[in-house]
Design a protein that fits this description.
Blueprint: H1 3-10, H2 18-31, H3 36-44, H4 49-76, H5 82-91, H6 99-116, H7 123-137, E1 141-142, H8 155-161, E2 163-164, H9 166-179, E3 184-187, E4 194-198, E5 215-220, E6 226-228, H10 230-239, H11 254-271, H12 275-288
Parallel strand pairs: 1-2
Antiparallel strand pairs: 3-4, 4-5, 5-6
Helix pairs in contact: 3-4, 4-5, 4-12, 5-11, 6-7, 6-9, 11-12
């Protein structure tokens, strides 16, 4: 970054000529997130409402572009770290959010579960411990009273407030489980999201659903980790009057999970009448819709 050049361009941001402003804005956007501190200093030292509005827009644009670039790299690189994917979606709303902070919060939960685990536990016994630590010790629960609040889908707020929707609670649950070597994976059920406990550890990043995929049972984190079988999914699908599909019964990949998080947020912001947020999220969805 040529600091002198950037400062010179920033000083021209309040030019009344729209063509000149558009040219300057384009050049500054190309400089990327490195110019944000200088833009913030300009905003703080200005009394011009026009300049402040333009600086706010510019900061938002360069920060969102940075998230888009990172999300594209994550998706193209195999989408192996689910936490990184949902962290980037949260970062689009909370630009100062650090991966280390959300990772530490997950690790704290994981360590509490690890202390309770013992050799030769059955699958159900492991789930019982996960449920105890996540829902009783750490007090996670479904946000039923404010179901469509955007904060239910941002991983940092879910970890801070201990409340979420079906997919965000499932994300916390499955990341903790997988870090402990417990084979629990997301299942992309319409109008809901559940987890599957497989009979052996598999690499979800290269996962391909097949008829021989063995699921021992299913888990509903939105219902405090209730365990159930395939028949309950059959009943749910029939009740929802949707055509049964194989994808409703087998694990999905991390890209699909992040897609669902984004779609949930789009619905939330549509209900809150925030078209700008909806557009930003639609742009992010295009990146992960591969």
């Amino acid at each position: 970054m040529d600091k002198k050049k950037v400062i010179s361009l920033i000083k021209l941001l309040d030019d009344p000529d729209s063509e000149i402003f558009d040219t300057i804005r384009k050049q500054l956007v190309e400089e990327g997130v490195e110019i944000v501190p200088e833009l913030e200093r300009t905003w703080e030292g200005s009394l011009s409402e026009l300049l402040q509005e333009r600086v706010e827009d510019l900061i938002h644009t360069v920060q969102l572009n940075d998230v888009k670039s990172q999300l594209r790299n994550w998706a193209n690189g195999g989408a192996s770290d689910l936490l990184e994917g949902v962290y980037l979606i949260a970062k689009s709303q909370f630009p100062d959010l650090r991966y280390e902070d959300v990772d530490k919060a997950i690790e704290n939960i994981k360590n509490d579960v690890w202390l309770e685990l013992a050799p030769n536990l059955t699958a159900l016994e492991k789930v019982k411990i996960l449920n105890h630590i996540i829902f009783e010790v750490h007090k996670f629960s479904g946000n039923i009273s404010n179901y469509y609040a955007p904060r239910n889908s941002y991983i940092n707020q879910v970890l801070d407030l201990r409340k979420g929707n079906p997919i965000s609670l499932s994300i916390v649950y499955t990341i903790v489980a997988q870090r402990l070597g417990i084979p629990i994976y997301g299942v992309n059920l319409p109008k809901n999201f559940i987890l599957a406990y497989k009979d052996e550890v598999s690499s979800i990043q290269v996962y391909e659903a097949d008829e021989n995929d063995s699921v021992l049972f299913y888990i509903n984190p939105f219902n405090r980790g209730a365990v159930f079988g395939r028949k309950e999914i059959d009943y749910y699908v029939k009740q929802q009057k949707i055509e049964p599909q194989k994808a409703f019964y087998v694990p999905c990949g991390n890209l699909e999970i992040v897609q669902r998080v984004i779609l949930n947020l789009i619905v939330s912001y549509e209900k809150h009448a925030d078209p700008e947020k909806v557009q930003d999220l639609q742009d992010l969805f295009k990146i992960v819709k591969m």
